[in-house]
Amino acid sequence: MNAPEPKDAFKVVGTRPIRPDGVDKVTGKAIFGTDYKAANMLAGAIVRCPHPHARIKSIDTSKAEAVAGVKAVVTGADFPSVEDTIVRMGETSASTVDMAQNVMARDVAYYDGHPVAAVAAISQEAADEAAALIVVEYEQLPYHIDINESFKLDAPAINPNLKATGLAEGEKVSPNVTTKFPYAKGDADAALAGAAATVTAHYTLKPVHQGYIEPHACVVSWKPDGKIDIWCSSQGAFNIRGLTASFLHVDIGSIRVMPLEIGGGFGGKNSVYLEPVAALLSKKSGRPVRLLMSRSDVFRASGPAPGAEIDVTLGADAQGNLVGAKVEFVYSAGAFRGTDAMPGVMHAICHYKVPDFSLIGWEVLTNMPKHAAYRAPGAPQVNFAVECALNELADKLGIDPIEIRLKNAVGPGDPGMMGAPLGNVGLIECLEAAKAHPHYTAPLGEGQARAVACGSWMNYGGPSTASVSLAEDGSVLVATGSPDIGGSRASMAIMASETLGVPYEQINVVVADTSSVGFSMVTGGSRTTYATGIAVIDAANAVIDICKQRAAKMLDVDVSTIEWIDGEAVETGNGKRLSLRQIAEKSGATGGPISFEKGVSPLQHLPGYSAQICDVEVDRETGNVSVVRYTVVQDVGRAIHPAYVEGQMQGGAVQGIGWALNEAYIYNKDGRLDNAGFLDYRIPVASDMPMIDTVMIEKANPGHPYGVKGVGEVPIVPPLAAVATAVGNAIGKRMRDLPISPERVYAALNEG
Questions:
Q1: Does the pTM exceed 0.70?
Q2: pLDDT-based confidence at 3, cuts 50/70/90?
Q3: CA 289, CA 499: separation in Å to the nearest integer?
């Protein structure tokens, strides 16, 4: 693909028009998953296991079935067996057997909150009453919440059916290991032995939840003809369709998924939790069924991001050039196989030039909900450890933390982790901009300290489909299969407007259901504006070609004499012009409606990078930490809608700050989640945060007509290390365990 045009060549790309969904959301008219209601709908309720690990000896549903108004009850026995296949889940993948068992336990419940039965009734009150009357007899089994306990060689097996992948022949590991992912180059031990300075340290993190505001919800109608309609809040309607079809043994084509507005996802709404259960209840009852998670259900039964135990050794020469690295980490996976070890390894040191390295990622089962993607899955945890160690190495060598990064930062043409040369990447420019930013040299107050950290994310492309159609008045309809989480409708409208040469206000964008547009992967992996954007641009260019042909027919000239200029067909000989509206008005007489659908799977995506500066203030009497100033510098490719890009940068940083300071899954001695709600699981709110400054470095991606790179994942990667190092600088002690709660800071200040 040719290099994109320079920024000043665009009329609409890079502007900040009003978002298409703004009015409905501000006025409360937008329909989210929790809002949708179908005629004659039943209410559902799910029975969840109260134990961290238990064999289901029996389930008695007779009392529930006798409750007035109850129309259906299902258990694991109602689900067919599932053939195990691996499916893409955005930037990660997962086993269909694992996900099916996560939706409804069969013989064993693997965590506190695991569904074991469900009820549908004429009212929510009747459903809840019936659910409470279902009697489940359990045999409690040994369980592991702690990664280290589960990783021991003699640990009791959580799920004996799951076997580890990636092991060397004859290698002995815990029965709870599901993945080993090693990756090495050169001789790391020899390189570190010859280093002028090394840092070796151990770091820990707890699982954290994505914290989306809208809980999971769906309405499902299994109709008499065997067709299934699903209305839900999801990051991928086609994912919901495919997984539900697999779990229920029905044809994919018999399911239609209508995506509703989504109140946040961040990777946590890539999978299915409720839809197959609601479908079976609907089939049994003959009526649509609505299922909704409470906030407690969301925390107890939908995936957090992995916790981790991480060991890092970094070595550098006297000038600060990295010579070697050893990184080994163990991620929790929850009760089923995880997928974060590979991206964790790939992002541990990929933003630096390290000649010799040894990287090993492990995943181990724990009796927690199946873990899920969370914004750059697998990268924030290991990056926390590596960036903290690099800051410590800079201190040892007496080198400025940005300077040591500039010495080692990858740039265009440098080999990536897999050996292929990197393209037009901008980490060096991010670091230079951070160093030049007034924040970096601003004076600090009493109890305050500053730190920097970097991070990266590979970004992704993948399959997307979009259609562009003209109405009779020349207005343009753009239909995509990508749910809008971070403003994709606005970016699609901007790119369609730029390509067609018509005003932004003339473009209407819809997220179509799975029976109205071709397949698209989930909205995740920072792929949507890039991949779906290419589909929109290609479809718009095809519409232009059709319009030129129709104009040639209307003007009775050869199509080779027609050019497309500013939204009009222009005949080069005599300068006659036909507007888009004029062509659309006559489309019925010149060949029929004008539309084009395009499917793509582009691979020219480029990684994104970020450098971030954090100032904290520590109250030495209480241990409380406040973030008082924060700056995010990011290589964004080209900002199609800059306000949305800035929002992604700020939002990711805030989530990373929450991960560093406040957030963690806390289990009690009985293996039950103690903080399953926003009162006890504390995410940052507006009053906790300073205004986050953003600096966009626009190094355009030549693999996209308008230079797009993904922007949504990168900003969550650096904050964990930036905050931890800043707190350490403020109190004079390294903070290597997250979250950095007031009691941990107080203990560090007062010798435990």
A1: yes
A2: low
A3: 43
